Each structure stands twice: as structure tokens, then as C-alpha cells.
Amino acid sequence: MTTALEVKNINKKYKNKVVLNDINFSIQSGEIVALIGKNGAGKSTLINIITKLIQQDSGQSKIFEKEKFDRNLIGVMMQENISLDRITVKEIIKLTRTYYRNPMSYQAILALSELQNYTNHPMDKLSGGQKRKLQFALTLAGNPDLIFLDEPTVGMDAESRTKFWKHIDELKKQGKTFLITSHYLEELEKVANRFIFMHNQKIIFDGSLTEMRKQLKKVQVTFNSELIEDIFNKLPAVLRVSELNHHYTLITSDVNSLITQLVPYLSAIDNLEIRQQNLDTLMDSLIRNEE
User: Fold this and answer.
1) Which residues form the ABC transporter domain (predicted)?
2) Boundary (domain end) residue, out of 169, 191, 207
3) Over pLDDT 70: what percentage of the chain?
4) Does this model's pTM top 0.90?
């Protein structure tokens, strides 16, 4: 299998502040990899370095094992939308295609970006969600093999987000490779086969969601109750408690002991469920382990 992206020992400082600390990983062709972490973890800086928008202090990255950077191999969908006056969707897509040696067909771009009905719309008259779709269209213009998506579905409605990820799956089946950042963690859980988690400017986890759960060995118990939070905080098997509108989430590494400890309160508990931790709570657990 071809290595689509290799990152070796990348470091970056702004003045005296460390932004990236010895970043190492590789991505194989056809993978969908989620780059996750809290704000300020260094995700966008790393993508900017890989795509040659800014320079690292040390280290290197290679795309498809090539020593020389080739922009024709990549597509980059950044957080900021491009908006130009008096230029239509059709015009900007066709113009962008001319910059590449092997562009994707115009009709394929429209179908994948769901912009068939907006070709004559001026860019500056599009809604926020439509502008994100246009950014995606421009990202695909060069028919890239490695695609970077930075908060791709921000501003899209629920239906558009669902269609967007279906198109990503279609492109994956064609052999495209993705590195994605998004705060919609529930979406990443469904589409990514691997997660690279950055915290304090370094990578603290690299693997699948299953591997993350196995490493942490924790589950969550959820239920509704009018009882006060302090009762559940005092249970020996509880590692962490969160409560919102009388809906409780308890994190534990010993679910059998926790259920036994909850028995005296079952008459005041409704809708009790035992489930695997979601990506959000897993991230919190990884951060707690680091600190």
C-alpha cells in the first residue's frame, strides 16, 4: 500500500511558544484519518505546514513519497470561505480547474458538491452552507489524491452534512485519502477509520476508536434522576460525573461494581443505559491521563 502522507519530527515555534512538538505519523492511501484536539492544539498549523502555507522550524513531510512538493496531488478545504464579487459558481469552478494538469470533470465536481442548481449564482450571494459546498468543489477541482478538510461541514444543515459524508465515502472507494479536522465529533466517529489526537502541541493518541476504548477501558452509564449529583460523586466506582437537566452520565472502569452501588437508588433512576464512551468523553479521558 502506498504511503499518502509521511510526517517526520515536525516542530514549530512562534516566538518562544511551542506550537508543534515533534509530530510523527504516516497515512496510507485510502484512509480517512481524523485529526482531533481542543482549540489551540496545533491542528490547523500542522495542516498549513504540510500544505506548504507556512514553514516548519524542523522536520519534514512527504506526499506520496515524493521529495518535491506537488500541489497537483492535494486538495485543501480550509475553514475560511472564499467570496468574490460578480463571479458565479460556474465561472470560479471552471477557472480553478485550469490551474491543474489533470482536473476533475466539471459535472463530477457539481455532483459531489451538490451545486448543480447554483451554477449561475454569484459567489457572494451564496448562503454559509452553500459557500462551504463551493469550497469543497474548489478543493476537488484538481482531482486530488490526498484531501485536507478543515471544519468542512460548518454552516451546512443536517441534510447537507449527511450528503457530504456520503460523497466522502464515494471518494474513498475511488482511492482518495483524507485528513479531516472537525468539531462535529459525532460525524467523525461515523466516517474516520483512525484518529490522531493532539493535546498540548503533541500527539497523545494514534489509532482506531476501538483501540482508544480498549486503551482506556472505560464505559459510561447514563440515566435520568432527580437525585443530587453529590450522591453519585461519592460512589467508589465512579470516575467522573456530568449532569444536564437531570440527565446523568457516569464514567467508570468497573461497570459491574457501579451497577451494584446504584442498586439502593434504582427507584429514583429512569432510563438507565450502559454504553461505550463517545469520542468526546474519550478525548476528555485521554487528556486527564496526560495531566
Assistant:
1) 5-225
2) 207
3) 100
4) no
